[in-house]
Amino acid sequence: MGSISLNKGMWMPSPVPVQSAEGSNSSDGRSSPVLGAHGCGTVSTAPPGSTSPPTKATAQGGISSYSPASTELFLKCPMLWVQTQRGVQPRVEPEWTPNRLIGTAVATGLSAAYRQYDYIGSPLTTLPFALPVAYTALEAGWVEQDTWNLPALQKLVERGIRLAIEGPQLEGMQAVVLTEQDVYGRRPDVVFRRHGGGLVLDENKVTLSLDARYQEARLAEYDHAWQIRDYAYHVSLYLAEPITETRYQLLVLGPRKQVVLHKVALTAEALTQWYQSAQAVWAAMAAVEAGEPPWQNLTACTNKGLHFGRRCWLHDFCHLCEGDAGRAESLYVIPPSQEGRHAL
Ligand code: SF4
Fold first, then answer.
1. Considering only CA atoms, which residue is closest to atom 3 of ligand 1?
2. Could you give the domains of the chain?
3. pLDDT (tens digit per residue) in 245-258
4. Is 88 in the pocket of ligand 1 (CB under 6 A)?
5. How many CB atoms lie within 10 A of CB 266?
6. How does pLDDT run across 277-295, given as a tens digit for each residue?
């Protein structure tokens, strides 16, 4: 893939206040702490979570935005988004898998490592900083069951962290500008400043296994990811400087461990186009949140590619019980407000 072509000074988000519909913001439109306008050579010393936790807020003026995770869920199916927001849960949880937890633990460890990069010479010496916090995150989310044991998962987490810090990610980078820091209710993994100038925004993805035959398709999904566009837009606005390169770092833990650094080409036009779409989608989300009925995306119900290899977990709610909370009660935990058809 070619590198991103957001030429310096060529494109900048409009300098308007941004309000996250899910996060709080300071009066100048920035979440604290604020790096210098260009953040050069600076590592945020603010611990993760030091900024205000996301709260429900109604945007007044400016831009009302929703996080990439929330928006992606809405795009998958507005009905699924609404019922998830409202706390509907299946009574029988699907079998627990460690995939998401391993990703969280590796991300936590890497963030700790990134915070040391300005202070120690070799990335490898960051391991003692990364592993303890990664293991703590792993233990916090660990669910006792018969299939996976904790020591085996710790080895996988260490493998992911080693792959990243021994890999090519740091080549040409001068400093970490921010990592896992609140940016308008978002937490991008890491932003580097490249030697010679330019901001590089990286997102880490971890997969337990990926057959080489499917790698190309996986990387192609990243080319159109909502998340990286959203992060590029908001980090540029936050730092008052364009992002010049965006990348996904894919950490494959098996069957053959490898690290793939995948550049996502974003032209200024593509980002402008994304922002126009985002405003339309966020307006639709705000309308549903304000009481308009959500629609069902019936193309998503049994599409296993959209639901981590299963059909949608709300399938029986929608199609067996036809959205009737009373009939669905034996299958789902439904908060009290969820009475009646579609519980709207
Ligand atoms: S079953 Fe289909 S319509 Fe219902 S929430 Fe899931 S994707 Fe949406």
1. 296
2. 18-44+67-73+96-289 (3.90.320)
3. 999 999 999 889 99
4. no
5. 24
6. 999 999 999 999 999 999 9
